[in-house]
Amino acid sequence: MAGTLPSSTGQGSLSCAPTQGDSKHTTDSGATLSTISLDDQIIEELRECGSTSPAALRAKLGLQRTPCTKALNRLVAKGMLISQGSTRDRVYRLVQSSQPAAA
């Protein structure tokens, strides 16, 4: 099912259509956007920086608090990330392949 969504950048609207493989969307100005899953974006960012706070991750990726928190919790539950610290000083990092995940 294809549809049109307003663009959050004010650059027109975003046309969404189901595709195979990499998801691509076209704005009404003709620009093509390639999307990467939020989980993959977070993992890539953590590969680059080692560890980060949720606030720094949100700022870097331009995310709202709720989707970022849900994605981080999902990755911790899958055993891909480790959460360290209490609420205000919490940081996340990737699990090393040789060590088990600890929440």
Description:
It is built from three helices and seven strands. It has helices spanning 38-49, 54-61, 65-77; strands at residues 3-6, 13-16, 23-27, 32-35, 51-52, 81-84, 91-94. The strands form two sheets. It has a four-stranded antiparallel β-sheet, with no helix packed on it. The protein has a three-stranded antiparallel β-sheet with strand order 5-7-6. Helix 2 (54-61) crosses helix 3 (65-77). 8% of the residues are buried. Mean pLDDT is 74; it is low at 1-27 and 29-33.
Q: What's the gist of this structure?
A:
This protein has 103 residues and is of the alpha+beta class.
Keyword list:
103 residues, alpha+beta, 4-stranded antiparallel sheet, 3-stranded antiparallel sheet, 3 helices, 7 strands
Runs in which pLDDT lies below 50 for 5 or more consecutive residues are 1-27, 29-33
- State which percent range the strand residues make up: 25-35%
What's the overall average pLDDT, rounded? 74
Rg calc: 16 Å
Helical content class: 25-40%
Order of helices and strands: EEEEHEHHEE
Determine the N-to-C terminus distance. 39 Å
